[in-house]
Known about the structure:
The structure is a homodimer.
Chain A: H1 10-25, H2 30-37, H3 51-75, H4 81-99, H5 103-106, H6 117-136, H7 143-164, H8 175-192
The first copy, chain A, binds a DNA duplex through helix 2.
Amino acid sequence: MARGYHHGDLRAALVRASLELLAETGAFSVAQVARRLGVSTAAPYRHFPDREHLLSAVAATAAGEMAAEIAAAVATAGDDPVDRFAAAGAAYVRYAVRTGAGFTVIFSTELSGVRDETRTAATRALMEQWMDLITATGARPTADSLHLIEEQIALAQGYTMLYTQGFFHRSSMPLEEIAGRVAMGSRRLVAGS
Amino acid sequence: MARGYHHGDLRAALVRASLELLAETGAFSVAQVARRLGVSTAAPYRHFPDREHLLSAVAATAAGEMAAEIAAAVATAGDDPVDRFAAAGAAYVRYAVRTGAGFTVIFSTELSGVRDETRTAATRALMEQWMDLITATGARPTADSLHLIEEQIALAQGYTMLYTQGFFHRSSMPLEEIAGRVAMGSRRLVAGS
DNA sequence: GTCTATATATTGATAGAC
DNA sequence: GTCTATCAATATATAGAC
Lengths: 193, 193
């Protein structure tokens, strides 16, 4: 990837490289993403009008991937609605830690001014899928389920942040242990509601 | 605060202004803090060797203030250990939202290279105070209490982030409602452990 | 102890060559 | 569709005047 690098699909490569950058540094800049691909800092602006629109495409991709990973985790979790709900929480933290693109990216305030139909469709699908897991546990459709999803997301995102911020000693605390904690906490939340 | 502004205690003022900046923007830069006080961008470097040491002083102050607010909230919560534990969670989210200086600032990875005795003492005192609340609930000293404090912090920090990121509609969701959710969630965590 | 001025780096973004 | 070159903004940090 030295010089004069030409891409078949730079647009998609920019999104992928953005996710890598987020995973490794937690930060995002158009210039760094371009450098990572060996293209000039001007190249991204042929595919996205500005930084926020690239970030929006990243959020859309992350929302889709996260939804897919949650669906896969839920599928192997059996039939018990609580098991499935807990598996979704664990899948969230795995994806968010691995990619650096949790809800802080997917629902970033920086994106509020960007109209992006692909992104809104992806985030809507993600939330609807999640909601279905909750109503399956027997929570009443509106009030209960909204509280429950908020609590689970808060717990999962909180663990994600504590983990990525180094609040836990990562050597003695593998990611799977965090995932297990979130699954366990999710069960308690359902039981208590 | 126009020009030629002279300070009695610029060092303390820099810390305060940093907390204001974090509260308002969620970001931090030495230059913005200096501008906010009407001093040159060079002035802070007479009081702190670099950006990270100022940030460390901010973290130390935040840890002390948060500990004081938690102590005050716990004192008015009565004698029941679970009530007191729940009050601590609510106090955390109030402080973190209001100041922008939750655990992401107090335990920021950017500070790992800064040796600052004042900060480490403040953070140690904060955590010990918090631990005392948990052991009072009857949790076993080591394993249980560590899990419980982590879960509560994750829940509280997760709600803080969802709130500040605008995931909730702030108009229909006042801070006190978030504080109440965290208190309720804390009770469930204790009950389930 | 604060100022002005400056060095250096990085960012987002644009103009114009190829 | 990508490049080189460039601009304006902002950042951290330092040197030297007052």
